[in-house]
Design a protein that fits this description.
CATH topology: Jelly Rolls
Helix content: 40-55%
Bound molecules: fe (ii) ion
Order of helices and strands: HHHHHHEHEHHEEEEHEHEEEEH
Structural class: alpha+beta
Radius of gyration: 19 Å
Number of domains: 1
Protein name: Phytanoyl-CoA dioxygenase
Strand content: 15-25%
Shape: globular
Strand order of the largest sheet: 1-9-5-11-3-2
Organism: Simiduia agarivorans (strain DSM 21679 / JCM 13881 / BCRC 17597 / SA1)
CATH class: Mainly Beta
CATH architecture: Sandwich
Number of strands: 11
């Protein structure tokens, strides 16, 4: 039976999307790097749209298609085309005592579920590496860190994704956001309540890699808001404070936790980053029910090359620390 699923995937999706059950995960990731073929071309097109100032109009148009009444039909087709595979890497999960049914229930009703701390060894390794990264956004971090790759393909997370989407998921992005103190910086769109989307169904996994408290740049989500996105939300993109208190009173969830805290969130829920007074590092793994054309080309070749250099330097610092 599994073989049948596999063949269907290979026929429809050209290549299987899951990592090998054994062998070098990092080597597998390197073969699937993001800067090849279509990705470079789409990164160029994306840049062109920005320079012609039509990126925003195209974005709104895409959202109107995405949230249209036909989306449930599209989700059904994706579920048929991408049946869940039964196999995944069997290594120990970094999410001990993970409760599948509780998490699924919370995600469906509240758009959000807080897991708690991941494996302490993995946290230590990730924190050690990111402590050497300057403030910036690093895309596709799983390509340059085997610890990020291990978490991105954790069996407990993939089990949840398969149940939540009802089809074989795909990892679209893994971004490390290293932000500096932001309290005196101008308010950007990420600081206002907004929603994102990717594929017909999508889920974010967030992991704090610094301690995050009320004075830090913490994450906020409006519970259950993934079911409330309307026409005007699509046109506006962000919500004013006034609208938030009128529409969603008592439903704002602030997320605090020590380094290693992991939480799940429906990508389409309203969320924001509150401007804090210190450096904060957060890993964001973005999964979807499939990979669409527009998920390619998020990073330019120059950004990827810069990321590689910075990570090489960070890894050298870690090696020096460990040997000294
Ligand atoms: Fe966002």
């Amino acid at each position: 039976m599994e073989r049948q699923f596999l063949y269907r995937h290979m026929l429809v999706n050209a290549l299987p999307v899951y990592p090998p059950e054994s062998g070098d995960l990092q080597a597998w990731m390197m073969r699937k790097r993001t800067t090849i073929g279509w990705s470079r071309f789409l990164a160029f097109l994306r840049q062109l749209c920005r320079s012609l100032s039509i990126a925003n109009s195209l974005h709104v148009l895409r959202q109107l298609v995405h949230f249209g009444p036909w989306r449930w039909m599209a989700i059904g087709v994706i579920r048929w085309r991408r049946p869940c595979l039964k196999t995944y890497r069997q290594e120990k999960s970094a999410l001990a005592h993970f409760e599948l049914s509780k998490t699924l229930k919370e995600l469906r009703t509240d758009s959000f579920s807080f897991f708690g701390s991941i494996d302490s060894d993995l946290t230590r390794k990730l924190v050690r590496l990111v402590s050497h990264l300057p403030p910036e956004e690093y895309l596709y971090a799983h390509e340059v860190s085997e610890d990020v790759a291990a978490l991105a393909y954790d069996p407990a997370i993939w089990n949840l994704l398969r149940h939540y989407f009802g089809c074989e998921p795909v990892l679209l992005e893994s971004s490390l956001f290293v932000s500096k103190a932001e309290h005196s910086m101008p308010v950007l769109d990420q600081h206002k309540f907004h929603f994102d989307y990717a594929g017909w169904q999508s889920l974010n996994v967030f992991v704090y890699l610094t301690d995050v408290d009320a004075g830090d740049s913490y994450h906020q989500v409006i519970k259950g808001s993934h079911r409330s996105i309307g026409f005007w939300d699509i046109l506006r993109g962000t919500l004013s404070e006034d609208r938030v208190s009128r529409r969603f009173e008592g439903r704002i969830q602030s997320v605090f936790g020590p380094e290693g805290s992991l939480f799940f969130e429906n990508t389409e829920a309203f969320h924001r980053r509150v401007r804090g007074k210190s450096r904060r590092v957060m890993l964001n793994l973005l999964y979807a029910s499939h990979r669409g054309l527009f998920s390619h080309g998020r990073a330019s070749a120059a950004q990827i090359a810069h990321r590689d250099t910075v990570f090489q330097r960070a890894r050298a610092c870690v090696a020096q620390e460990l040997s000294g």
